[in-house]
Write a structure and sequence with these properties.
Blueprint: E1 6-10, E2 20-22, E3 27-29, H1 43-52, E4 55-62, H2 73-89, E5 96-100, H3 123-132, E6 140-143, H4 146-155, E7 158-162, H5 170-175, E8 182-184, H6 187-196
The structure holds zinc ion.
Length: about 200
């Protein structure tokens, strides 16, 4: 039997790439085009630091923009290629990517449903663990939203919230009894915390 590995699961938007302000809609959301996808600084450095410590690095991301008709699968794939190229420029890559394209109240019928993969549900993390022989109790989920922390916790991982010290989400975290192990301002700082555990 193969030895189980440890992993760091990463949310994508706000962790690997910038979130985008869509002026015409007045919302902060994921990029809708490859042009809008911009990799954050030091992400490659963070991923390589984690890999050096023996972690697999796996993206776990809700992308309901498909269900909401913000972009097509083709446009999504172009964003994915841009991300891969951007990471490569920083001499890094991820081991696997899992995306949920669904939303319960979408406008595109084929993606509109209540699924088991959409965070805060731990479906994608569990699937990734099965497919990559990962010991979830040795693993981490890092994200910038409460649902990332909830999904990680439900899967049995430790969690780090990417956020500012002046915590916008703290009130809501109290209300929903969500407690990340740590809060870090960016992925590189989060990676440093993990290497010191
Ligand atoms: Zn889903």
């Amino acid at each position: 039997m193969k030895m189980k590995q440890k992993a760091v699961f990463l949310d994508r938007d706000g962790v690997i790439n910038e979130v985008v302000y869509h002026q015409e809609m007045g919302i902060l959301d994921s990029p809708f085009t490859a042009d809008q996808l911009k990799i954050l600084p030091d992400v490659g450095k963070a991923i390589n630091l984690l890999r050096k410590q023996g972690y697999k690095v796996i993206i776990i991301s809700n992308q309901p923009g498909l269900a909401k008709a913000h972009f097509t699968l083709d446009a999504f794939k172009k964003m994915q290629q841009k991300m891969t190229a951007g990471l490569k420029k920083q001499k890094a890559f991820v081991d696997a990517e899992y995306y949920c394209f669904h939303h319960p109240y979408g406008t595109v019928a084929s993606y509109t449903k209540t699924c088991t993969c959409r965070k805060p549900k731990p479906g994608m993390i569990r699937t990734a663990a099965k497919e990559h022989h990962i010991d979830l109790s040795q693993s981490w989920m890092i994200g910038d939203g409460i649902t990332d922390i909830q999904a990680g916790y439900s899967a049995g991982c430790k969690t780090i919230l990417i956020g500012r010290m002046k915590c916008d989400l703290c009130r809501r975290m109290d209300d929903e009894d969500v407690k990340p192990e740590h809060i870090a301002p960016n992925l590189y700082k989060a990676a440093l915390i993990i290497t010191k555990e």
